[in-house]
Amino acid sequence: MVVVLNGKKVELADDVQNVRALLASYQLQEKIVVVEQNGEIIDRSRYEEAPIMDGDRIEIVHFVGGG
Questions:
Q1: Burial class for 18, CB neighbours closer than 10 Å (0-12, 13-18, 19+)
Q2: Which of 16, 54, 62, 65 has a Cα-to-Cα distance from 28 of 20 to 30 A?
Q3: Considering only CA atoms, which of 11, 43, 38 is closest in space to residue 25?
Q4: What stretches pass through the bilayer (predicted)?
Q5: Residue 25 is inside which H or E element, if any?
Q6: Strands, E assignment, 1-67
């Protein structure tokens, strides 16, 4: 399936069926991130149940510490 991820078209592996699997595929599951799917921010508690569909627009923002 093809989605738009952070502004770029990306083809996802067949096993990436939800937001949690997407984050795991990019090794972001343990980081503090905000995920927006088709204009809606997905609550962290819903990552497992938030399906990803062909053509979805997904933005992932992760925070980097510094000073």
A1: middle
A2: 54
A3: 11
A4: none
A5: helix 19-25
A6: 2-5, 8-11, 33-37, 40-42, 57-62
CA 19 to chain centre: 5
Q: CA-CA distance, 11 to 21, in Å (whole number)?
A: 14
Q: 67 falls in which pLDDT band (50, 70, 90)?
A: low
Question: pTM of the predicted model, to two decimals?
Answer: 0.89
Local structure of 57: helix, strand or coil: strand
Q: Which domains does the chain have, with CATH numbers?
A: 2-62 (3.10.20.30)
Q: What is the per-residue pLDDT across 11-50, written as a single tens digit (0 to 9) for each?
A: 999 999 999 999 999 999 878 899 999 999 999 999 999 9
